[in-house]
Design goal:
This protein is α/β, with parallel strands linked by helices. The chain is built from 15 helices and 17 strands. The strands form two sheets. Strands 1, 2, 3, 4, 5, 14, 15, 16 and 17 form a nine-stranded mixed β-sheet that branches. Strands 6-7-8-9-10-11-12-13 form an eight-stranded parallel β-sheet.
Length: 453
Amino acid sequence: MTPNEFLQRTALQQADLLIKDATLLTPAGEQQADVAVIAGRIAALGAANWQADKVLDAKGLHLLPGVIDTQVHFREPGLTHKEDIAHGSKGAVLGGVTGFFEMPNTNPLTLSASCLQEKLTIAAKHSYCHYAFYIGGSAANLGQLATLEQLPGCAGIKVFMGSSFGDLLAEQDELLLKILQDGRRRVAIHAEDEARLRQRKTLTGGDVANHPLWRDAKSALLATRRIIALAEQTDRPLHILHVSTAEEMAYLAAFKHRVTVETTPHHLTLVAPDCYQRLGSLAQMNPPVRDALHQQGLWQGIADGTVDILGSDHAPHTLAEKNQAYPDSPSGMTGVQTLLPVMLNHVAKGRLSLQRLVDLTSSSPARIFGLTGKGRLAVGYDADFTLVDLKAQRQIDNSWIASKAGWTPYHGEQVTGWPIATVIGGQVAMQHDEILTGPIGKPFLFADGLVNT
């Protein structure tokens, strides 16, 4: 549809979709209004007297700009026995998530333009929501990163300082410095000190409860300090993923001119040692779920604004894989589908406001990564919405999980707050736990030449 056609239909007040009587979470705060959608874009807020082909009754519900999960592992290609883009994106939509950024540790590793294109081709056929893919920063593609990061559909560069292998592991300062010098966009960092992890692996003792002893808080803080020092030399912006320690959070607060910060629902919700006693290796993640003092530090980062983004770090493994004896059991859990229910439950308990949750899951991802048309309820923006019932009381259950892995660490948990509908590009993709469309996702668009500061 051309701009003139859009304006003509707006003047006629004829919409494709009309969302009635919703409480909107706008940049100006909450407001009660109807929302009119034309050709996948917001045509009007406060759309009284509009007509529409489809009307969605949202009375008593809150309409959020579409939730974006900026850290998932959908395992395709190469590891599709435990997840793929179709199942992962279905889970996203069922959980109220309208788009994802996927990580490069697939098989083959996403280190080249051809590997990125393979993922984009798969997603174009099979993704139920919007998508982008990270390219790994590595010795194998050094010198090409400045070009690779600008490819359509590329979310940016991901660096594993620890917890990886082969060409995807970048642990030496000399290599890290070269990676940071090769390009302009914000670099996403898995910050664990690989040398310290190797030294401490003997401390596991075959008990998963020792996971946070092996991968201790110092290993995370050491890596975070190292990468920030290198970024200061190169004037490169960073995005530190899945921050898990109180010490890191306090340290990062002094570097907000350089660094954006992610934490995860599982680090904010599960707590050691209880989670390991209850769940065993199902609670095993890298970096680990830690004790209550660290969790308090993360919540302080939410409260004082140090944290910018919530990502799920959805990283599924089969139950057979997770049931291997520790430490042979792999780290990772499902999370994209439960991100919003778990965090809405925290809203219900007063730990953060709904507006702050919107900031962490919609507004900041769009702002930090330069997503075109996303992250706001405003005229002209894309019609990607998450409709939630703040009062709904539900039980999270393995049977609800769309992931090929088929399980969640929150199985049996009662929550208050639930996604009622997911709207993607103006189409109602999910309503009342039912997928209503086929794969309709499109690649995220990033602002040309953007330095994400």
